[in-house]
Amino acid sequence: xxxxxxxxxxxxxxxxxxxxxxxxxxxxxxxxxxxxxxxxxxxxxxxxxxxxxxxxxxxxxxxxxxxxxxxxxxxxxxxxxxxxxxxxxxxxxxxxxxxxxxxxxxxxxxxxxxxxxxxxxxxxxxxxxxxxxxxxxxxxxxxxxxxxxxxxxxxxxxxxxxxxxxxxxxxxxxxxxxxxxxxxxxxxxxxxxxxxxxxxxxxxxxxxxxxxxxxxxxxxxxxxxxxxxxxxxxxxxxxxxxxxxxxxxxxxxxxxxxxxxxxxxxxxxxxxxxxxxxxxxxxxxxxxxxxxxxxx
Length: 296
Known about the structure:
Elements: H1 7-19, H2 22-29, H3 33-47, E1 52-54, E2 59-61, H4 63-88, E3 93-99, H5 101-108, H6 112-118, E4 122-128, E5 142-147, E6 154-167, E7 185-188, H7 202-209, E8 220-222, H8 225-233, E9 238-242, H9 247-252, E10 263-273, H10 280-292
Parallel strand pairs: 3-4, 3-5, 7-8, 7-9
Antiparallel strand pairs: 1-2, 5-10, 6-9, 6-10
Helix pairs in contact: 1-2, 1-3, 1-4, 2-3
């Protein structure tokens, strides 16, 4: 435990020793000369030594005062430099982007490092939720949403269309729609936030494909798209999922899309609060999202 005199007394001592004047020390510290004199007398009493030779118009450090003044001045200089560095350090700026759980996990998280590289003065915060956030209230700076809209009070910009198709692990050997009769169908229930007519389902797929007698209710059901995709990757069956969300797996061959038809979905949109041009965080996110998904 450090046993130090009061900081105010040390400040008075350092200033008076450096300026060789109680009056000038008082002016620098914004107190009266009497206060400076009182603090130094208390410090001398605590230490049991005289720190100054008091003269008519100035003061001079005693030998003991000089021995103490150097370390005290160095200490205050070090503290001042540390405080100054903190004061001039650029404040971290945070941009918060909200999106559905699956979109965040599969498309935004893998791109997060590119955001930091593109905008080094910003930190990215990803908010994953299928329920929409209140952008007007500042819960996020922008959002990516799937749906038909409308989005009252918000600026909406198209990003990309969504499509759905059957995907599975190549080793399952599923090659034609007829193979579905002997395959495990993977169902997802995570698009409850979208209009029912646009939600992909094996029943809808069978109707469009003209498959009669397919048990469209059996198989494995999961309540989120990411889990359904992971089940397909693990070879647990064939899933009817977003081609946007499995683009990386299709490109690398981890998953295959053995046949159609492809079901057309709705669109992803970038949503921003009104007057977003006045919000730097929204502008940064708009630029980043536009660059990342320009090809959509």
